[in-house]
Amino acid sequence: MKLFSKLTGINMFSAMAWAFRAKAPEGKKPVRLLFYFTIFTYLISFTIFFVFLFFLPKRVFDMNQYHAGGLLGYRDVGVKVYDPSQHAYVAYPVFFAPLPANKFTETFEVVLLYKQPSDNYYQTTELMSLYFNLPGLIAGVLFLALVYIILFSLAKEYKRKKLSHHFMADQFRKIVGIAPWKALVIFLSIFVLILGISAISIKRLIYHYSNIYGSHQKAFRSAQLKKVSPQDTLTGYVIRRFQSRESETSSTQSADGRRTRQETTYYTVFHYTVEFRDLIHIPVYLNLELHEAREEVKVLNKHFPDTMTVVPSYIKEYAFIVNPDYSISLKRDVKEMHKNRLLQ
Question: Which helix (H) or strand (E) holds 237?
Fold first, then answer.
C-alpha cells in the first residue's frame, strides 16, 4: 500500500478511508465496492504469497529434518505404514491421511511423511507438490494484478486526477530502479525456484525410502499377485469406513437449443477399508469406493451403528471378487457362500 502511495503521489490509506465512508455511488461508480474489493483481493494475494508460499522454504527445511516413511497400509486415526525393519505396521498421526490402494497392483506404495519440530502430527507431501502449488502461484499473480487494477481505479476516483499506467511504470522505475516487468520476472523466478527446491527435496526423500523399501514392495506385490487373479473370490474383512462428498454436473438444453442449463448433484461416496489376511504373511489392505445409492452400501453398513462411525461394531467376513483391473467388488456374504457350496 505504501509503494502504491509513492507511485501515485496519493495517500492510499486516506483513499481507502474515503471509499469506506462513501454511502452512495459518485457518478456511475460504486466507490464503497472498491474498498471491499481491495480488502478482499489484497487478503487473498497476501495469503497466497506471504503466508502460503513464503512458508514453503521452512516446510522444506522441516521435511529434510523430521521425516518418516514406509509402505502404505491403511487410514486409521492417522495412517498405518508397514516398516520391514520392525516387521509390523506402524501408526503415525497424520492430518488428511491417504486411503489404501484401490488395486492389488498398487498396494504397498512408498509413503513419505514429515512434521514440524513443535508438532505431534505428520503431514503428507501433497501440499508441497508442484501440481498443488503451481496453480496457487498463478492464482496469486492474477489476484495481485486485480489488486493493482482496483487500487488504480480507487486512486483515480479519490483525487479525480488523470493517472496512466505509463506514468505508474515511470514512477516505479524511479523508485525501485528497474522496470516493472523485470521486477515481476525476478519476483516470479524466486517463487519458481522455491517450488523447484521443494519438488527436488520430495523426490530425493522418496528415492531414499524407495531404496530402503523398494525390494520389500516388489516382493510383497509379487507374492500377492501369485495368489490373486481376475475373477477370483477372496475372503476379506471391512475394518474401516470413511465418507466424502462429491459432485456431478450435468447439462441440459432447452427445446429450441438456445439455452443450456447446468445442474449440480451432490452425493456421498463411501470408502471401505478391506483387510485380506491370508494372501501373504502380512495383511493386505484395499480401498473399496461405493456410491451411496449402490445396493452393496446397505450390506456393508449393517455393522456401523450410525453414518459417522468409522470402526464397525462387528468385523464381519465378506466375499469379494477380483475385477479385471485387480480392484475388488463385493460378491456376497461368506456364510451364504458356504451354504451354496454345501447345497452343491
Answer: strand 233-253
C-alpha span between 328 and 276 (Å, rounded): 11
pTM for this prediction: 0.75
**Cα–Cα distance for residue pair 152/68, rounded to 1 Å:** 49
Residues 6+ apart with CB under 8 A from 4: 12, 148, 151, 155
DSSP β-bridge partners for residue 262: 251
Amino acid 214 reads G
Q: At 18, which amino acid appears?
A: W
First to last CA, the chain: 82
With contact defined as beta carbons under 8 Å apart, do 234 and 322 qualify? yes
| Residue-wise pLDDT tens digits, 95-144 | 888 999 999 999 999 999 999 888 889 988 887 777 777 888 888 888 88
> 92 and 68 in contact (C-beta within 8 Å)?
yes
From residue 137, give the alpha-carbon distance in Å to each of 26, 43, 144, 193.
36, 15, 10, 12
Give the separation between CA 189 and CA 132, rounded to whole angstroms: 18
- CA proximity to 31, closest of 178, 158, 177: 158
What single letter denotes the amino acid at residue 251?
S
d(CA 80, CA 274): 14
Span 2-24, pLDDT tens digits = 777 777 777 777 877 877 776 54
Kindly list the domain boundaries of the chain, sorted by start residue. 1-226, 230-343
∠ CA(205), CA(124), CA(274), 5° rounding?
110
Tell me phi and psi for residue 337, to 5 degrees. Answer: -65, -40
CA pseudo-torsion sign 156, 162, 165, 169: negative
The neighbour count for residue 152, using CB atoms within 10 Å, is 17
- At 179, the amino acid letter reads A
Question: CA–CA separation, 246 vs 265, rounded Å?
Answer: 8
Residues in the chain: 344
Collapsing DSSP to helix, strand or coil, 183 comes out as: helix
